[in-house]
# Entry
Amino acid sequence: SSSFGGTDRPTEVDIDGWIESARTRSVEEIMLEIVDGNEEAYVALRDAARAGTPKDLCAWRAMADMLLEEVSGFDGADVKEVGVSDVQRWCNRAGVAMQAAEWLIWYATPIA
# Structure
């Protein structure tokens, strides 16, 4: 039995779902690359500052010190070793990522 509604071929809806799922996973992977693989920093950016996507992170570029304050007070992740220069570098990398992969502009951190 097939998982494609009784046919051997996936529907456009199936394919769109796969693409969306892959892009969501890719956004997380790209963010981890941006933050030098620091999962604690990624969690803090995502959950404390709602800056869990390159688009959101890039918006903080002119306020790296304020973003650091947002994530420093977050109890859910250890970011004591993170400094303003790290945050500024990550914001700049987010801008580069968005230039390289324009589809990233479609993704923003959900507001819980």
Observations:
- Residues 12-34 form the longest helix (23 residues).
- The mean pLDDT is 89.
